[in-house]
Amino acid sequence: MDKHYTTQEHPDSDFYAIKFTEESPYTNVMVIYGTVKILEDQQLDMATLKFTYNIVDPGDFDHDDLKQDDDFNNYLGDLLQHIIREGTIGNSESTTDTHTESSTQ
């Protein structure tokens, strides 16, 4: 999914926007994710991703149609999952050893 989007600053927001590329089924649509929550159900051993988003630019699509489109909402969820996974994997691979010992001279 890395080729499906780019990130870019948005002049009206403190957050980066996600802009979908031609590799995506939603070319030129731009969204900003809002609140993201991961709700865990320990009994079922699963988690649910809940999030809000704002369509900054619908591209050639109708804004209201996108908001109501289950495929679009699922696509946003899949992309968010991908971004979270990539971010946590990237962070876990680049660890630093911060253990320090005092000198006994």
Tell me what the structure shows.
This protein has two helices and four strands, in the order E-E-E-E-H-H. The protein has one domain (2-89). It is α+β, with helices and mostly antiparallel strands and 105 residues long. Strand 1 and strand 2 form a beta hairpin. It has helices at 63-68, 70-93, and strands at 5-9, 16-20, 30-41, 46-57. Strands 1-2-3-4 form a four-stranded antiparallel β-sheet, with no helix packed on it.
List the SSEs and their pairings.
Elements: E1 5-9, E2 16-20, E3 30-41, E4 46-57, H1 63-68, H2 70-93
Antiparallel strand pairs: 1-2, 2-3, 3-4
Brief summary:
It contains two helices and four strands; from the N terminus they run ββββαα. It has 105 residues and is α+β, with helices and mostly antiparallel strands.
Number of helical elements: 2
Annotation, overall tally of beta strands: 4
* Helix fraction bin: 25-40%
Radius of gyration: 19 Å
- Main sheet strand line-up: 1-2-3-4
Key structural traits:
105 residues; 4 strands; 32% strand; globular; disordered C terminus
